[in-house]
Design brief:
alpha/beta, TIM Barrel, two-stranded antiparallel ribbon, 6 helices, globular
């Protein structure tokens, strides 16, 4: 399938890739092929132009969200190209990410998002490096957690709104620890329902 653009409610979502640096045990990818009736496994990754053409006028959507069945910031150049075109047309843009882009690209990429992204939502999902490694199983191992926190700290300097998200299957004490981390980092915390 090639559902690289799909709608949920009044928002439009961009599914750039199925690649991800995490293999979270709770990920919906492990349970079903998509969400909202869309099959989100890609036959091929779309080009920037294919995405732009498919979207057309972004003003009819409440927001444009880079979020699919993979980590969108793996395809940073394409994300930026698309975001720049959509922003020029007045779109509100959010990125849902695991926060490992700086590790993946080997540099701080956050300044590249300045003026293009309104919201960055970062999946935190654990209060310690050890628990993060156990739950999210990043290819970067134990160092991923600190990199996620550092990425969030960089985002706070540039992005208007930064959010940590955690899934509601975590023990309440872990969620509270994540809430404290969010407060210390200067970001919001959103507890999201785990899709089953």
């Amino acid at each position: 399938m090639n559902n690289y653009v799909y709608t949920l409610g009044d928002a439009l979502y961009i599914n750039l890739t199925n690649r991800c640096t995490n293999s979270c045990w709770f990920c919906i990818r492990n349970k079903c092929p998509g969400v909202g009736g869309y099959d989100l496994w890609l036959d091929k990754e779309p080009t920037s132009q294919e995405v732009i053409d498919r979207i057309g006028d972004p003003s009819k959507y409440s927001e444009i969200v880079f979020c699919g069945y993979g980590e969108p910031m793996v395809r940073l150049d394409e994300l930026i190209t698309i975001a720049r075109v959509l922003k020029e047309k007045g779109a509100r843009i959010r990125i849902n990410t695991n926060g490992q882009a700086n590790l993946y690209h080997g540099k701080n990429i956050v300044p590249m998002l300045e003026g293009l992204v309104d919201v960055v939502s970062i999946s935190l999902n654990a209060p310690t490096a050890e628990k993060y490694d156990e739950l999210c199983r990043s290819i970067y191992g134990i160092e991923a957690f600190d990199a996620v926190l550092e990425f969030a700290g960089e985002c706070v300097k540039i992005i208007p709104k930064v959010v940590f998200s955690v899934v509601d299957v975590l023990p309440s004490e872990d969620i509270e620890k994540c809430r404290r981390i969010a407060e210390e980092t200067g970001v919001e915390l959103r507890v999201r329902h785990m899709m089953r």
